[in-house]
Amino acid sequence: MAILAVVKKDLMETMPIERKADQLGDQSERVSHAHANFLKNRQAALHLISTVVSRKVEQFAQGNAPLSPGAQKPLFDRPDLVEFATGSLVKVFGPDYAIFTGRRVPRIPNGDLLLFDQVTRLEGKPGVFDQPASITTRYTVPPDAWFLAHNGYPTLPFSILQELALQPCGFLSAWLGTSFLQPHQDLYFRNLDGQATLLWEPDCRGKSIVANADLLSTTLGGGTIIQKYRFTLSLDGNIFFQGESVFGYFQAGAMANQAGIDNNKLTPPADGSQGEQLLVLPPVNPEQPYWSLPSGQLDLLHPAEVWVKSAPGQPEEIWVKKTNNPDDWFYTCHFYQDPVMPGSLGIEAVFQALQAYAMAKGVGSQFRSPRFKLITGEPVTWKYRGQIVPKTHTLTFRVIVKASVWEEGRWIIRGDASLWAEATRIYDINQLGIQIVETA
Length: 440
Known about the structure:
CATH superfamily of the largest domain: Hotdog Thioesterase
Number of strands: 14
Largest sheet: 14 strands, antiparallel
Strand content: 25-35%
CATH class of the largest domain: Alpha Beta
Number of helices: 10
Order of helices and strands: HHHHHEEHHEEEEHEEEHHEEEEE
Helix content: 25-40%
Shape: globular
Distance between the termini: 60 Å
Number of domains: 2
């Protein structure tokens, strides 16, 4: 089959050490033994992938999993997704996935962070990564969804937009059998980079959001698998959110030796005692729900130290220092057997820092009933080179306020941000911004 040639070529390209050892010849018994083990493991992987692909192609040919866009019955429904998130891969994808039973494997989020109900379309062939592959999912937003009720105004926070768009990428990757490219390794699945643009702000209460994702490329190298995706979110056939993102599969050693974005060349201050202005976080205000920081599960700042640093001729900087809570609700949702703070919530915390800054500066005082709103038509970009896990003690982030201006009846604040886990800078977020507008 064509898959064997493709995977064989990719596996050879990812093993520069073994190729070099082969070229040097029998210089030592150790090198020969290592090379023999490599060839044996590679042959086993090729055989496993061949078996999986053959069975799945046969299943689709028999109509057991229809792939047509017009199929009435979803290919996978909510119970299937819950099973994949926390249960048996065999029950969802078939007996070939028994090789992963009892192991920690890449999952989609569960509980309150599982943000699609159905997989309605899948295109591509499991095990084939040099041909187009795509997915369509559907999610009906509850009118009283927690992320609407806790957002201060019943619109989608940026973090939820990200999760809606990115989670289908993880499911498509699993359905394609990406883990079979390194079947004997326990892999970690992480988002690395992305950019996304909100085109317009929809009212999604009680409506169905359709997510589409296309796999653009798969690259293997140095024990790592990198995949790039393009995505859209639409409502009633109209796209309102779009972008691209990169994911990676990593072995445990790579996760343990992360050096951050810039090898720790830029470190955060120890505290806010260097002449900066301490900013008192405004409490959640039930009397003025539209002019309040998010509450409940979306409250990512309380409690935290927040201060503003000012210098002549320089943009103001917002600094936030917070102690990580290992019992935070999202660790059990993201992911099963692999707890890590979602990068989307790290970005959400930065948005909230901008909101706290605006409230402290009295920016909304010119409005009778102000509210926060995301900026439309401008891409937000992010880069993750590390993770926040339950054992992480301190989070620090900085927002450089690039603009705070009045434009056409609205106040706009824009900034670039960095986030540190302990003393390692792990997030870089650019072009994020908020609007302050009059409540309609």
